[in-house]
Write a structure and sequence with these properties.
- There is one protein chain.
- By secondary structure, the protein is an all-alpha fold.
- The protein has two domains: about 80 residues; about 110 residues, no CATH class.
- Helices cover about 75% and strands about 0% of the residues.
- The chain has nine helices and no strands.
- It is globular.
- The two termini are about 35 Å apart.
- The relative contact order is 0.12.
Length: about 210
Amino acid sequence: MKEDFLRPPHTAAEWTADALRVIGILGVIAAVIWLKPTDAGIAALALPALMLPRMLGMRAWFDVAAGATVLAAAWSNVFDLYAAISWWDLAVHFACTAMLAILTAEILTRADVVGITTSARPRSRTPLVLAPLIALALSAVWEMIEWFGSVFISDQIHVGYQDTIGDMVLGGLGGVAAGMMLALIDVRRVPDSVVAAPRAILSSRRG
C-alpha cells in the first residue's frame, strides 16, 4: 500500500485522479476558512475515500470515477443540491455506495477476510452476492451518520423514514452494479513489475 500511495502518476488519468485529491484537500481548507464548521466536516469526510483508491493501487479510471463521485457527494451537501434537485440524492447514493462497496471488497480481499475481487479468483457469483450485502451495510452506516448529524449537530440535516429507505434501496442497487463490475473487471492496477517483465524479456531477445 505504501508503494502504491507513493508511486508517481504516469498517465493522464492518474494525474487527473491526483488532481481530484488536491481539490478535495483545498476544498476542506476553503470550507474551514469561509464556510460553516458542518460544511468543513462534510468536506473532510470525503478525504479518506479520496485517498483509498491510490493506497489500494486501483486502476486509474476507477480512481478518477471514485474521486469525482465522492467529491460530488460531499459538496452536493454543502451547496444544497440534494434539496434543489429531487432525484439527485438517490443518484448519488447509487453511485457513491457502488464505489465504496468496490473499495470495501478490495480491502476485505487484501485482508484475507473473504476473496471477492478478481485477484482472489473467486467464483463469479461471489461478488454478485457479497457486494450488495456490503453496499446495504454501508448504506445503513451512512444513514446512521445522517441521523447522528441531524440529532446532535444540525437540524438542517434532513432525515425521515421514506428518505432512509429510499437511500438504502438505491445503495443496494449500487451494490448490485458493483458486484457485476467485480465479476467482470479487475479494478486493481497491474503492478509495474508485472508490466516491466515482458518488456525486459523482449529487450533481452532483441539484444
